[in-house]
Specification:
This protein has helices at about 60-70, 85-105, 115-125, 130-135, 135-145, 150-165, 200-205, 205-225, 230-250, 260-265, 270-275, 280-290, 300-315, 315-335, 340-355, 365-375, 375-385, 390-415, 420-430, 455-470, 520-535, 555-575, 590-610, 625-635, 645-655, 660-665, 670-675; strands at about 15, 80-85, 170-175, 185-190, 265, 295-300, 435, 495, 500-505, 580, 585, 640. With about 700 residues, it is an alpha+beta fold. The strands form 4 sheets. A 4-stranded mixed sheet has the order 1-8-9-7, covered by helices on one side. Strands 3-4-6-5 form a 4-stranded mixed sheet. It has a two-stranded antiparallel ribbon with strand order 2-12. Helix 8 (about 205-225) runs antiparallel to helix 15. It starts with 12 loop residues before the first strand and ends in a 17-residue tail after the last helix.
Length: about 700
């Protein structure tokens, strides 16, 4: 389904890891699949029980800081991975659960303008009996519309109609802040429309990829048959769908290639798009999509756009119908908007090949997540009101500004940066916009209509609302107040086009920020996150955007070459780390996140030390001195573990390194860490070929 992403191809640089007239017959108030329980207790400051002090901090600091947690923690059966982020997410889910149960039961806060709408959406999702009774009627109604696909013109109309409801077919089309003029929104066409998580699963010739392709083919066939497609035809259509997707995948760029903003910014305008793919009737598509008049437009992958023209001419209409129907079916099953048999088959395929999860997530958790995903700012208002008050915003902003000051002091001392480049870097730093907790202006959901009687219809309506909201931005000035994560989200991000850092209320809680804890602990935990996001403004992607958010080469050639040399050191270091079994990390894919981790720790420590000038040293915690507390707190944010299937999937699709290497990787480069724990040359946590970018 459609999800709100700030950038196309250029990923949002984040921590971890972005709706009936007349009277309606009201479904019964939903009951949770499991009784609500009290939120798990927050961990105050340093968690001594999470540590394993039998491990030398100079040998493996992740094991030292997290060994106790790793030994006692089992990944929940419905999860593919588990860590400190997940623990806080679970606490927030419980809080949102309480809000949504009340809203769905009609106990809506009078001051909440969208409480009923949020409650109806959640109730529709929780109504499993209603979903079972409806069967595939709503799905078949969507499929019936696709019978009209006979030629390129009707194909374009069908693609536009599906994308209008958020179904991701053939390619992506959306508004996008212009890379070269950050004041305006333009249209963007990007690669998309695959059923497997990445192009590489279609193209790599290793045994595991071949096994996944075989499993996917069988899965598509089973799902189509379950939806009523006769057996022999289901087999033919599954092969046709896979063949079309594989052809698309072969024209796409890799995730590593898509990290280059200059590569994916190819302005062509509507005329250039029609010239690049003349056999696909773009005006018919745009009319069906409901797009506004298009003038400025860029494409991310020119060869993929050109392929669309050939496919529109050569691919049989029956193949197109099968492909489009499959994506509606697949996305509705993954969203749990179809009967349980479809959900179970989708889960079986996904868990066997990608996640390793043992059980389906409880329905109430899924529905809380879905409501947050679709109506995040409507639900987030109540969350913020209840759990993000007092001086939390001001305290967080103070810490953010202290870390920005540390980066300013750092820039002034960099011997490899000349004065001209330094001045522009300092300007960029000064102009970073900090968004803390929640938006200044909440999103208006008044035009979204939710049908409590049908989750599938409500889901398509919510996605259609988001598509309309997004497309309406095309041709207009950029809204610099927009958020791309909901307030309850346990994450944060840096957006280079807006030159902003965003820290939702959901992450500004223990274990990331703990009231009453030593400053060393909070600078180590949430300070690491803040420093990480700040460094994204100067990583291998972020550095290519200037203070105004424009794609611009503001670096002198010698300084740029020096940066590339330093970045190459980081790439080489992480390419040597093992993710799972014999599978190594992709140092190119994870480069930006690894640079951000290294710079983030350095800046957070410098900011902590500066904040303590003129003050008495902080008290020891479990015999740990202040700097030691800082590093343990930073490491304990990344206590996590993943199932083998999930670890393998993340190597392909995730620009973040696993938790262990987000700790041991950057710390092994920091002399301050070695000094804090008395580590010597030759210890595993002291790299002889130390990398330093910022």
């Amino acid at each position: 389904m459609h999800r709100n992403l700030a950038l196309s191809g250029l990923v949002l640089a984040a921590c971890a890891t972005a709706a009936p007239p007349g009277p309606a017959k009201t479904a019964p108030a939903p009951q949770a699949a499991a009784p609500a329980t009290a939120p798990p207790p927050a961990v105050p400051g340093i968690d001594a029980a999470a540590m394993d002090t039998r491990v030398s901090p100079c040998v493996d600091f992740h094991a030292y800081a997290c060994g106790g947690w790793l030994a006692r923690t089992e990944i929940p059966p419905d999860k593919s991975r588990w860590g400190r982020f997940n623990e806080l997410q679970e606490r927030n889910l419980e809080r949102l659960h309480a809000i949504l149960d009340a809203d769905a039961a009609g106990q809506v806060d009078a001051a909440d303008p969208y409480g009923k709408k949020v409650g109806d959406f959640y109730a529709a999702c929780m109504d499993e009996a209603g979903i079972e009774k409806a069967g595939v009627a709503d799905l078949r109604a969507e499929w019936k519309k696709l019978d009209a696909v006979k030629d390129a013109r009707s194909l374009a109309a069908a693609v536009g109609s599906l994308q209008k409801q958020g179904v991701g077919v053939l390619f992506r089309f959306r508004s996008q802040q212009d890379f070269k003029d950050s004041t305006k929104e333009v249209a963007m066409v990007g690669q998309g429309g695959l059923g497997l998580p990445d192009r590489d699963y279609y193209l790599q010739d290793d045994a595991r990829s071949a096994e996944i392709r075989k499993s996917y083919l069988a899965h598509v066939e089973r799902m189509l048959a379950m939806a009523g497609v006769p057996g022999a035809r289901a087999a033919r259509e599954a092969k046709a769908v896979f063949g079309l997707e594989r052809t698309l995948a072969a024209s796409y760029w890799t995730r590593t290639e898509m990290r280059d903003p200059a590569r994916i910014y190819n302005p062509v305008g509507l005329g250039g798009l029609e010239k690049a793919a003349p056999r696909f009737p773009w005006k018919v598509y745009l009319a069906s999509l409901g797009a506004p008049p298009i003038t400025d437009l860029f494409v991310t992958t020119p060869r993929a756009v050109s392929l669309i023209s050939d496919l529109a001419r050569k691919t049989p209409a029956a193949t197109w119908r099968a492909y489009l129907r499959w994506h509606v079916l697949s996305e509705m099953a993954a969203a749990r908007a179809l009967p349980r048999a479809f959900v179970d088959e989708d889960f079986a395929f996904t868990s066997r090949n990608f996640t390793g999860a043992k059980e389906l997530e409880p329905r109430w958790k899924h529905c809380v997540r879905a409501t947050d995903a679709e109506l995040g700012e409507a639900l987030g208002r109540d969350f913020v009101h209840r759990w993000f008050g007092g001086d939390a915003r001001e305290k967080a902003l103070e810490l953010v500004r202290n870390i920005q000051a540390a980066q300013g002091a750092n820039l002034a001392t960099l011997a490899w940066m000349d004065d001209a480049t330094r001045r522009l870097a300092e300007e960029k730093l000064r102009k970073i916009d900090n968004k803390i907790g929640y938006p200044e202006r909440w999103r208006d959901y008044s035009s979204l209509e939710v049908d409590r009687r049908s989750y599938l219809r409500s889901l398509l309506a919510a996605d259609a609302f988001e598509v309309r909201r997004n497309l309406a931005k095309i041709g207009k000035p950029v809204d610099r107040g927009e958020w791309f994560m909901s307030p309850p989200t346990v994450n944060a991000y840096y957006n280079p086009l807006l030159n902003e850092m965003v820290f939702p209320a959901g992450i500004l809680q223990p274990v990331f920020y703990t009231r009453g804890a030593n400053d060393a602990v909070n600078y180590g935990a949430i300070g690491f996150v803040v420093g990480h996001e700040l460094t994204h403004g100067f990583d291998d992607q972020g550095r290519k955007f200037d203070a105004q958010g424009n794609l611009s080469d503001w670096w002198s050639p010698p300084v740029s070459q020096e940066f590339e040399k330093r970045a190459a050191c980081v790439e080489k270091q992480y390419s040597g780390y093992t993710a799972v079994d014999d599978l190594k990390l992709n140092g190119k894919l994870t480069l930006g996140e690894n640079i951000a981790d290294l710079g983030g720790l350095k800046l957070a420590l410098a900011a902590y030390r500066a904040s303590r000038q003129g003050k008495l040293p902080e008290a020891p915690v479990d015999d740990l001195g202040p700097d030691q507390q800082f590093f343990v707190a930073a490491a304990q944010v990344w206590c996590d573990k993943a199932r083998p299937e999930e670890a393998r999937r993340r190597v392909v699709v995730d620009p973040h390194s696993p938790g262990r290497w987000r700790v041991d990787g950057p710390l092994s480069n920091l002399p301050e860490f070695a000094a804090a724990f008395g580590c010597k040359a030759g210890d595993p946590m002291v790299r002889a070929d130390r990398c330093e970018v910022w």
